[in-house]
Amino acid sequence: MNFVPGIFILASIATVLSLDNGLMRTPPMGWMAWERYRCDIDCVSDPKNCISEALFIDMADRLAEDGWRELGYDHIMIDDCWTAMLRDEEGRLQPDPLRFPGGMLKLAQYVHDRGLKLGIYADIGKFTCMGYPGTTLDKIQIDAQTFANWTIDYLKFDGCYSSTDEQEKGYPLMSKALNATGRPIGYSCSWPAYQGGLPPKINYTFLGEICNAWRNYDDIQDSWDSVLGIVDWFFNNQDHLQPAAGPGRWNDPDMLIIGNFGLSLDQSRSQMALWAIMAAPLIMSNDLRTISSSSRNILQNKVLIGISQDPLGFQGRRLLKEKSQIEIFWRPLSHAASALVFFSRRSDMPYRYQTSLARLNYTTGSYKVLDVFTGETASFPSHTTEFTVSINPSGVVMWYVCPTSRWMHHEKEEGRRWKNRISSPKHHRLNTGSRMFL
Amino acid sequence: MNFVPGIFILASIATVLSLDNGLMRTPPMGWMAWERYRCDIDCVSDPKNCISEALFIDMADRLAEDGWRELGYDHIMIDDCWTAMLRDEEGRLQPDPLRFPGGMLKLAQYVHDRGLKLGIYADIGKFTCMGYPGTTLDKIQIDAQTFANWTIDYLKFDGCYSSTDEQEKGYPLMSKALNATGRPIGYSCSWPAYQGGLPPKINYTFLGEICNAWRNYDDIQDSWDSVLGIVDWFFNNQDHLQPAAGPGRWNDPDMLIIGNFGLSLDQSRSQMALWAIMAAPLIMSNDLRTISSSSRNILQNKVLIGISQDPLGFQGRRLLKEKSQIEIFWRPLSHAASALVFFSRRSDMPYRYQTSLARLNYTTGSYKVLDVFTGETASFPSHTTEFTVSINPSGVVMWYVCPTSRWMHHEKEEGRRWKNRISSPKHHRLNTGSRMFL
């Protein structure tokens, strides 16, 4: 594998500089309410879908019982619209009493009892994006302590109704306040998204020191156009963004919308593949109570999750944009392996793309590849071996690529690694080794 | 039902003026190669998908064996790229000898033996769109006769590489030439699509006298954006287009792409619902050998096909565009019934839309409705009864609506009508009455 030396160096530095709370060494996985349920607070007309403890209990049950948790989807995140319109008499945020009658500590206990982590939402401005009480600078300490008291595990800190100055002060302050509680709380910052997401306005080195993840760009919507817009922005700006990511510090292109209404199956595979290439958080926002088996199969693809969660934590890059509207993406993985995604932006018919690993910057040698979605394997006696992949319109072909000499070695190595994870009570993962390294 | 009187009058005139070959009294249904298979002529690398007699035999088998024909999908249409690059020594078009070794007469026989009709493609210009031999003015008569000799049942006559003048002469000339063969051949004209599709450049009254259907606008592509663009154009121009349609003369917004790669399930339901509202040809372009059951269920929805094929043949209209991005479409049907489509252009979450039939121009009375996709029924004691429908992002809710007083009557009426069709060997339709009129 022809690693770009620069990435190695930056990543080594990054590991030293990242937020030292030991959390999110791989991109976080789980479920978040926002994209699918928004600010639906009408529990009278829409009791199954309104933002309420019942919704989070439903989804916690599904994460725990339908095989999600074991694959790594272990966070359940509340987003906006959970609070009452007023703080309590001691100045603390409080959940809406009608929609969260049991309170947050009890909800967190329910979530923890099922081996999951609970995420919550606040906003550095005067109000949250939907107009609920904000966490202004003077409230940061008390809110951090409230979240810790509730045994919250993750905070999404939004930036509506705040000034540049308040963001500059508030995001680092919340980082310190969370650390000061003594409870490990993953910290996701929306700061970059409010400042255009790019240097020099954004200092990603500094951001990596104070946040575990950050939203760089616009909110995702339930449409393929939205996914394409996000993909374009992240890869057009990969020279700035890619070196910023690493264990404990991740770019977040926003939630997975797989299982909702706007993506075809091929487009769903494309979002999943490209999010794994980006080392992005895999945070679904969908209805796990009614999700189709075809969407579930994509989200629960073990090889793909293994690529997403590769312990090196390198974010991948776009290698090529062809005139044929085929684009190639690549992510280096542990043990000299890598992931390749062949993506078609065409809207006519499956395109037969011919190339060789040599033309995709792979170094001399023989390789074995595993098709992530079909499970098929292939051997290339040489990096110059020509091959053809058939790529569906708005779809992908995704490969796990490995030098032949390391293939069997990986089988043993990875088998051990996954076995270790299973034996650890904190990780509820399945052994993916058997399928990943046939 | 509050019919718009103007529509009645125009439709009555139209019936008199439409092409008098007795064909396509309801919008044609079937399968066409273009959108899914384009000009793939590489039968060496891609033998299952190249334009060849094997492809049409495969699809004819599927239409005949998988329940399509019985529902009305009885046309199988060849598009561009079927000919040899040269005419034969007598000046006749001939199929590519390697890809159609059995010849067209034999293929037509195969298709007819399975109770299907065969469509073919030609172009009024010097070349077809993909550069194959065109049917210039001097070749119209011989090509019409060749098609009749081959026992062809339908002709799509394209307009690439032709002048406005050649179109003005050629499209009527082909109509006469087809009639002169004595064989009933459905005639689809691409003329309007080459002239902007609108009056005064297009005279739809005249077009209805010479063509059974016509393409008004751009080719469909395998994307939701393409479907939306087509829907917008047709309904933005409904005042010109809607009165042009009627039995034997149809606007054609192009093929159904359901079952391919670019549409979600909700978007697939939306295309099917809106095409039925438009009284559009239901011509699939997909792979019937591998189509998913969920796509098949949408395309084979009997109530929906019944609406599409309503014998009155009124094209529907967009009634409303709400600020909430909900749009309402309506089509009047036989026996005082009608179809309603509630369509969401949102990309966030299901939208709860509240209205009443009265606000959708329905006249005083009580109504029963049947949800086309769920099969559920509901009764409205009054046209002013308020109701709420939940519409998915990029999805539809589609209703068959009937005055309560006619509901039982319809059950008998429609039962008889469908029964008659079944007893006729020319129609291979199932009795949809039982489900449509619960």
TrEMBL record, chains A, B:
A single GO cellular-component term on record: lysosome
Major subcellular site: other
Signal sequence, renumbered to the chain: 1-18
Class of this enzyme: hydrolase
Compartment annotation: Lysosome
Protein's UniProt keywords contain NAD: no
EC number: 3.2.1.-
Gene3D superfamilies, alphabetized: Aldolase class I (3.20.20.70), Golgi alpha-mannosidase II (2.60.40.1180)
UniProtKB keywords: Disulfide bond, Glycoprotein, Glycosidase, Hydrolase, Lipid metabolism, Lysosome, Signal
Example GO BP: oligosaccharide metabolic process
Every Alpha galactosidase A C-terminal domain range: 313-395
InterPro entries to which the protein is assigned, alphabetical: Aldolase_TIM (IPR013785), GH (IPR017853), Glyco_hydro_27 (IPR002241), Glyco_hydro_27/36_CS (IPR000111), Glyco_hydro_b (IPR013780), Melibiase/NAGA_C (IPR035373)
Top-level taxon in the UniProt lineage: Eukaryota
GO molecular function: alpha-galactosidase activity
Family to which this protein belongs: Belongs to the glycosyl hydrolase 27 family.
Subunit annotation: Homodimer.
Official protein name in the record: Alpha-galactosidase
